[in-house]
Specification:
Blueprint (H helix, E strand, L loop, with lengths): L3 H10 L12 H17 L5
Length: about 45
């Protein structure tokens, strides 16, 4: 399993792309970030 912190950082880094895209394409980035963060969160185990 990948490092959760690295997965979150990679997801958040996708937001940097927003300034280069038309607003109409932002939803795809937000959806991808949401999916990546949800996956990282679901893989977290508690002690």
């Amino acid at each position: 399993m990948a490092d959760p912190d690295a997965r979150v950082a990679a997801a958040i880094a996708r937001l940097d792309e927003l300034s280069e895209l038309p607003v109409v394409e932002h939803v795809d980035i937000y959806a991808d970030v949401h999916e990546r963060l949800s996956a990282a969160l679901s893989d977290v185990t508690t002690d």
